[in-house]
Every structure is written in structure tokens, then in C-alpha cells.
User: Fold Trehalose and maltose hydrolase (Possible phosphorylase) from Flavobacterium xueshanense.
Amino acid sequence: MISTFKSLVFLLLVSPIVFGQTKSDEWHLLANSRENYYGVAMANGQIGIVTDDMPLKTKEIILNGVYDGSPENGISRIVRGIEFLNLHLNINNQEIKSDNINNWSQVVSMKEGTSTTSFSFKDLATINYTILANRAIPFSAMAIVEITPNKDIEITANNYMVVPDELKEAKSQFRVLKDNQYLMPVFGTVAKTRIGKYTVAASTTFLFDGQGETLKQTENEVGFTKKLQKGKKYRFAVAGGICTSKDVTDPLNESERQPIYALQEGIDKLLNRHKQAWAELWNTGDIQIEGDLDAQQRVRFALFNLYSYIRPETRQSIAPMGLSSQGYNGHIFWDTELWMYPTLLALQPDMAKSCLDYRSDRLQKAKQKAFIYGYKGAMYPWESDDTGEEATPTWALTGIFEQHITADVSIAFWNYYSYTQDKAWLKKEWAVLKETADFWVSRVVKNQDGSFSILNVVGADEYAQHVDDNAFTNASAIESLKNTIKAAVILNEPINPLWKEVSEKLLIHRENGITQNYKGYQGQVIKQADVNLLAYPLHVITDKAQIEKDLEYYAEKIDKKDGPAMASGVLSVLYARLGDREKAYSYFVKSYLPNSRPPFGVFSESANSNNPYFATGAGAMLQAVIYGFGGVEQTDMGLKYNKGLLPKQWKSLKIIGIGVDNKTIVVK
Assistant:
């Protein structure tokens, strides 16, 4: 362990060079190299706009909660939207391209939710291109361009839209609307999703400081031409929005209202509302690390991404890759409830509640799935989309057999009640707890000795398929059943005697003092933590000696090459709670550093994959900080604040806005 720890610290120290990242302050991530570039999603919970290293261009736009069939197998996939913020910029009749710019740099402002790309074009001008998905206006976004001429120049700026291949029947139009003295030029594109499930529409206009310019359409672009004077900075913006028929009845007209609204507000009002919305998020939930700028940036970047991928009161959840890509088809997994949700519950409970609303809305479909497979109650799908039906590709056995997600959902509901102590809410959502409990008692098999087993499952360790009595599956079912009984007592609801009997007699196997990953486990390599989850976040194993034994045994069994990031976060929490500062910190670093990708350190799923941004891994790393070093513990009576454990590399840890009373806890 010592040698591993030293190597990780060494990597940490050299990481600014590895990732081309200038470590200037705690709120900004800067890049000055375009090599092996992985972008960041500028997202507002509704739309995610992924940055590109190309000048004046975005990589793609992801639309939250909008799904259509994929061409590969018809399985649903989250939809890419029309890219509507792109620009062609000519200076003195010379087009700016990727290969004719100099002094490229890009900065992500986590505080303000913006990405700014800066570069120079020959000896003529320097340009800044800032994009944002407006946090205050869900379907709205803006690109702001600042040009500083080095000599007198003439510019031509044209907005163009990119329609991804998966959209069809695209049509564009430019028209100038008029209301009394107000002229409102609007450029838009409308298209259908691949199998025609939804209509997608994007619309833009130009905003100017002072007097506006006359816009003209050239083929499929709209723009203007203007002469600029040497040294006199010039600013304009492309503003607009994107809407779909999933959210509004008439997406075309609603998308046109976005640029019309922007015209009346202007650049600064829109920008200030966006900044204020981000400021409110940071004021109500932040983590501050003193003495370790690298850790501070990475922890805040993880928070930034989680906050970017969801909005309160939208009844939406978060996919493993958030709004950064179509990874895992944008489906919702256990990743939400087990890995991302605990951080949101602690710091942004309204966001956490939205994840639960998403599940509550799909309870009937979970009941239907249970019925399809001959069980009672509700059986949540392994991969879920907007329908709530099973969305896992048919070739993946997880879709049928990785059933612990039903308990993961139930536990998340109980934890929200525990956090808020809101009995009215618990009464409203009682059906989720009851129906999932009914599933488990219909799913178990009674053994000859009176004990119960769950046969033929895939556990958290997905390398082991068709196993019996998987530790995490059984333990999460036990906790789910016990929580349901507690809720029934609070609400004076009838208690099914089987809930109690199964929760007390469902088997967790042990051999030679070690909790078994599953019945008959013989030390095989495992994909990720499974048994260790019984101590955290579950409360099934509480004996310190047993926790230590299981930790030491399974830490060496986890796939060191391709295992996902989450296991190290859990091990960090457990070692912190055991008081082992060095191991807790070592696993904390391991939870993100091998998975970081240039130039900003975005998360990939494993050390050997390149599929950022992996919000699941970010959630696990943040749990190491909050529930490990921070000393926070989820109990039936709400959050408990134990004495934390400060890594020796840090001077202090401050967690702001935690709990129902928005506490600030400090670990020194």
C-alpha cells in the first residue's frame, strides 16, 4: 500500500503537466493544449452543450429526457439536438479555421457556468468565444463573441446550425418579425427524431451592444458584415433556444420565442441572470479545501458537473454520462440512486427529489415489469428511459437479472424521508416502498432450514452472472424491507409479515471470516465493490472487525485495469470511518486521478476507457469527501455529523450548505 500511495501522490503532483492544465485558481480550469482534447458540457439540467477545441464551434448538444430509437438495435437513446451556436467568422475575407489560429486557450469557469475559447488570428485580431446554457432559462443558450482588432478590419459573422445524422426532415428558415417599431430577426431549424417520435426546433438571433446590425441570409447561414477600428473591442452574441415536442406542444414557435425574448433582454441581462442562478447553487452547496488546489479544483469540478446535469422540480434524473454524451444511451441506472444521489441529497435536496420524482412517475411500469416476469409488486428496470420500461439492450443480461436496482430505488426514497423527516411526503410516496418490498418477498426462495435465498442474479459485481445469494443484492433487499417496515409504523400502514421474516432470514454467506461475494465465491477478480457496499452505504455490516476484514480482502480482488471509478470512492469512505487517514486519502486520489482526461480532468469510467464525462465516478469521489473525510453519516433521524478525518495534505475541509438547516461543517 505504501508504494501505491507514493505513486499516486507523484501522479497528483505532476498532473498539471499531464493534463495541460494551468492551476491558477480554484474556480477556473484552463487549457492551453488541444492535444487529446476532451470537452466539458456547459449544461443547465435541460440541455448540455459540449465544448470543442475547434474555434467558434460546439461538439454536440444533448437533450435531457428526450429519447428515440437508435439505428443499431432500436433500443431507445437520448437525442442529440441541433447545434445552434456555431459561427463562421471571416476577417478581411479570410475565414478563421482550426489550422490558422494561434495562441489557443480555453477556460471553464465553474463559478459562472461558462466556457471561453481565446485565440489570435494572424496579426489581425484576438477573439474570445464564450458559450453557456442559461441556468436561469432552461431551454435557452448563448454564445458571446468579443473581437479586439490589432488594425482596422472588416468582419463577416454567420450563424450556422448543424443537424446531427439522427435527425431527419430538417427545414430551415429566416424571417424578420415585426411588432410596432420592433424588428425581430429569427433564424431557425426544425427536424424530426429518427423514428419520428419527437419534433426538435432550434432558433437564434444576434444580439449587439448598442445599435444592431442588419442580418442577411446566405444559403443556410444568417449573419452580418461590419468594419471595426483598431484597438476598439467589439462584442456581439448569438442567442436562442431549443425545444422539443416532449416538453411543449408547439416546439417551433416556442423555440422562436427564446431569441425574441433574448432580443428584449440583451446580452448583459441574460448573462447576469445565468451567473446569479449559478451563484445561488454555489451559495447553497459547496466544498472548500484549503491547502490543496488540485483537490479543490477536482472536487468542485465534480460538483459543477452534477449540478449541471439536473434541475429541481423537473421530475428528471441523471444518466451515467449526464448531459455530456449519448454514453449508455442516456439511460438511467443505479448510478443515480447509489452514486450521485447521496451528494445531491446532502447539498441540493431539491435536485435529489427530482430523481425520486422520476422513479415515482414510473412506478406503474415497474409493476408491469414485475408482472411480466411473474413477480408481485414493482420491479424497476436496470436501464430506464422516458417510458419507464426496460431499456437495456436485449443482449445484456443485466436488463433481466441485475435486480438490486429495485432496492436501490427504495433505499433512496427512505433516505429522503430520513433526511427531511417529512411525513406528508412519505405518505404520498408510500406506494414505492410497499410495492418494492412486495417484489422482494415474491422474488425470494425459502430454503429447507427456513432461511431465504435470491437465486440467479447479477450483482454489483457484473463479472459474476447467474449467481445465487449475491451479497449486495441480498443486503440491499434486507435494508429495503426493513426501511419499509419503519415507514409502515410511522404511517400506521399494515405490515406484511413476510417483509419481517425475509428481512431477518435472507442469507448473507461467510467463509473463513470473510463475507462472500455470492454463494460459492472462490476469490475471482470482481468488477467493483460489492461486499464492501454492505458497510457503506448500506448498514447491514456494522462490526468494525468484519468491515476491516472485508476491506483488506476485496480491495485486492477489484479489477485494477478495467474496474470503474466508484469502488475507490467507497473504500475511501470506509477507511476514513475506520480512522486510516493514509489509505482513505490514497483511495480518494485513486477514485479520480487514473480516470482523468485532458485538458480539464473530466472523468472517464475506468483507467483504460475514454468515455467522459462519467458523472457516476464524480458522485463516488464526492461521497469520499462528504461521507468519509467530512464525517457525515446518513441515519434514520437525518444526517449525523461525526468528527471528520482530514488528509495530511489538506489544511482544512469546509462543506457549505449541508443538511436541512444548511449547516457549514469544518474539519481541521
Q: What stands out?
A: Residues 471-491 form the longest helix (21 residues). The chain is about 35% helix and 25% strand.
